[in-house]
Amino acid sequence: MSHNIRSSRSRSRSPLRSIPLFPLILAIPKSIINADFIKLQEKLASKCEVDRLHLASETNLPNFDEGFLYIYGPSLKGKIEILKSILSEIQRIIDRPTLELKILIPDNLIEALTGKGGKLLNKIQTNSHATITIVEEIKNLRERLIKIEGRSADVELAIKEVYRLIVERKSNSEPKSVLDKTSAKFVIPGECVGYLIGKNGLFTKRLKADYDVEIKIVKNEGLPCKDNEHIAMLLGKYRYVKTAIEIVVDKILEAIETTCSPISDLLVRMLIPTQMVKELIGPQGSIIKEISKKSGGAKIKVMCDTETEKMQDFTIVTIDGSRDLKQEAAIRIYEVISRGHKPSSPSSRRSRGYSPSPPTDNVSIFVTVPDALVSRLIGRNGDNVKGMMSRSRSQMSFQKQPSTELKTPENDKARLCTFTGSSSSIARGIKTLLDQIIKLESGRYD
């Protein structure tokens, strides 16, 4: 059950006014949440300088006996006034000199508190005389809880200092403008960045040479990403990026399998503008269901359930399933997100519902291939290249002689391989060709 109470008071002119709205989130014991508490909530909303109080008493978390009270508003003073009243009510009920209260904080704030031997955490405990404990991760809860124990005034001071840290960390985070909203973005573990880029940037060079797409690695942007995560951003023309997504997803999954230990999951995680979440989901989930169906049954989840997630500039979308399903779903999600930044038209949108992109005429893309491998790629009587064309349903033709001006990223002689077909068939063809090149270079050609 949720209770939303809006305050009729004007907003405070606190120095925090310029900081983006971020709620103070208290975990309230369910034993406290009764008719008297609801009345107190209504009284506080009208009395204190806050914009809104939101009580979520049903959290859908197993074995969790608390609800969440979200306190919205730019005024730190108003939030602390409400905190005092809540602490007073809890102490009145338990009738003990000391009490405890949990608050919800962004996951990536844990490292800030506990890093460098817990220096910051110890400082807050020393200043407030309260005891602070990091609660173990709770399944289905992507934020973290910290428990604060002590006398009422000590708990209040500790929460106040932790909340200031939340606000400062959010306001001082790297500007989101470094992320191009129309690009395809993937969240990746920090340890697999080197493998993804390749030795001496080999994969990025091939991506640029073969697809005319640049891949830019951006360090963690704060929520919704974790501190040890990076963002792989694909930049280029829409149709080129769309074609490159398949091989990039494949490379990301390979990088995770190779470098991450232990491997918790092999989900593909895309980063989309939060303002596009409704566009992606569609009425009654119609668009995201259609994307799942068209991709062959990929499991797609938009990670925008909690209040803190809804307030971020970007949202994570996870994709699960076989490798092929993940690749196809990622392409279709990119189609929807890109369409959201272009003028709508009846042919591309039906009553705001998802519809596949209209068929396009055949296009041609050129790929550089090491000259030394061309004869084996073609095969006797063209058997190998015919097999690749059959599997990908695209046309392939090799330049007859190596170009004097064309070199591979390793500075070897190269020829052009021309692919002709639809964007999806070309993507399959390029992947097939690159797989064969890898086999040849490793001496495992079938």
Describe this structure in words.
The protein has helices at 35-47, 76-94, 109-128, 152-171, 193-197, 202-211, 238-259, 277-281, 286-295, 307-310, 323-339, 374-378, 383-392, 423-441; strands at residues 2-6, 24-29, 52-56, 66-72, 98-105, 131-134, 144-151, 184-189, 214-219, 229-235, 268-273, 299-303, 314-320, 363-370, 395-398, 414-421. The protein has 3 domains: 2-171, TATA-Binding Protein (2-Layer Sandwich), CATH 3.30.310.210; 176-339, TATA-Binding Protein, CATH 3.30.310.210; 363-441, K Homology domain, type 1 (Ribosomal Protein S8, Chain: A, domain 1). It has 14 helices and 16 strands. Residues 6-20, 172-177 and 341-361 have low confidence and may be disordered. Helix 1 (35-47) runs antiparallel to helix 2, helix 3 (109-128) packs antiparallel against helix 4 (152-171) and helix 13 (383-392) packs across helix 14. A 7-stranded antiparallel beta sheet has the order 1-3-4-2-5-7-6. By secondary structure, it is of the alpha+beta class. This is K Homology domain-containing protein. GO terms for molecular function: RNA binding. InterPro entries: KH_dom (IPR004087), KH_dom_type_1 (IPR004088), KH_dom_type_1_sf (IPR036612).
